[in-house]
Amino acid sequence: MANLVLSLTSLIILLAAVVSAGKGQHFGKTINRKHFGLRKEKLTFFRVYWHDIQSGSNPSSVVLRPPLSNSSFFGAVTMIDNRLTTEVSVNSPLVGQAQGMYAGTGQHEASALMVMNFAFKTGKYNGSTISILGRNAVFTKVREMPVIGGSGLFRFARGYVEARTKWLDVKTGDATVEYSCYVLHY
């Protein structure tokens, strides 16, 4: 009798597990993009200047973890809240902030993993963001990194950015980088 109860209990538990597992197959469904106001995809281009300031009393870039050695950037982790402006000058009109981090990833070359959002604060794109995640070979003339998403007017965004260093102070680490952004979005 005890074996029969044990067998029935095991069978009921197994049956319940099989029935429950089957319900998980339908957690997603295809929906019409027009329900979200997504119509025709467009390509937007904009150019901003990214100001990475590590020096002074109010830096926008803070090293959280220094590099493993003085001879390379490898292992360094830096948190940023950098100004995005319309011109090379750090005092030119502000359009947003680059918020995120970068980490030194090259042991034998100056390269970084860039993880940042461009958060726009003015004009048509106020409140919208694009997300950038990619490799930045710092001393290469033009570096390309992917745009992997966005919010607001850049919801469902994809594309790429091209980074070009316009100014670098090797003593302080301060830099200004031009970002040419090509963003596909609805």
Q: Layout of helices and strands, plus pairs?
A:
Blueprint: H1 2-23, E1 42-52, E2 61-65, E3 77-85, E4 94-104, E5 111-120, E6 129-137, E7 143-151, E8 158-168, E9 175-185
Antiparallel strand pairs: 1-3, 1-9, 2-3, 3-4, 4-5, 5-6, 6-7, 7-8, 8-9
Summarize the structure.
The chain has one helix at 2-23; strands spanning 42-52, 61-65, 77-85, 94-104, 111-120, 129-137, 143-151, 158-168, 175-185. The chain has 186 residues and is mainly beta. The chain has an eight-stranded antiparallel β-barrel.
Q: pLDDT under 50 segments (min length 5)?
A: none
Oligomer: single chain
Number of strands: 9
Compute the CA-based radius of gyration: 24 Å
What is the terminal separation in angstroms?
66 Å
Structural class: mainly beta
Strand order of the largest sheet: 1-3-4-5-6-7-8-9
Question: How much of the residues is beta strand, in percent?
Answer: over 45%
Order of helices and strands: HEEEEEEEEE
Number of helices: 1
Percent of residues in helices comes to 10-25%
Describe what this molecule looks like in 3D.
This protein is mainly beta and 186 residues long. The chain is built from one helix and nine strands. It is globular. The chain starts with a helix and ends with a strand.
